[in-house]
Amino acid sequence: MVAKRIIPCLDVKDGQVVKGINFLGLKEVGDAVEMGKRYSLEGADELVYLDISATREGRKTFAALVERIAEVINIPFTVGGGISTLDDASRLLDAGADKISVNSAAIKDPSLIERVAAKYGSQFIVTAIDARMIDGKWMATTHGGSVPTDRELFSWAKEAQDRGAGEILFTSMDHDGTKAGYPCETYAALCDSLSIPVIASGGAGNVGHIADVLTLGKADAALAASIFHYGEISIPDLKGQLRSQGIEVRL
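The chain above was modelled as a monomer; its predicted structure follows.
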């Protein structure tokens, strides 16, 4: 059995880790470098760094900050935010990223996924999908969930896979920051429709929520922020409780 992954997420704005509800009301919660180092030492399986204002502000992810984080961690490191060209991807790879995450730019130009995968391999590219329920369908959004699109979650995830994405990071914008749990039925259906790993994001409030999305939701990994940032549970305690429930995780 492949071990399930636990992935802390650093949503970064102006160099500081921030957190809000549904990406609104953002509050600073700590320094990106120090928090990345702590999660690495605690036993996180991977780390995700998303420069959440990069696309909205029309600038590039700060490679210098990526480099500083990469220097103090020893786990796989995924970076996203404002990545729209091969040069952007190359710059972040050089700065120490192991994977890059594309979202808004890939919806605007899906061939970006193919170009990055062709140059670096599918394992280097994660397609992030921020979706919310609109008129009974999960529809992808861009620019931090603020701009709706005509891309439906399941068809867009399948297209991203076919174009070369190595993983899908699906965030429910309706659940993000609410700590009310993940939409497990949606994750299960998405995982069943794809052959690549799915990372679940948006809604983790306790161990039960994470256990549910890794079992009932069939997700390959659970990404969380608030419960780690605010010290509600440590990664070792979380993994210990998941293991006690029969869920395979790396201790």
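The chain has one domain: 5-244.
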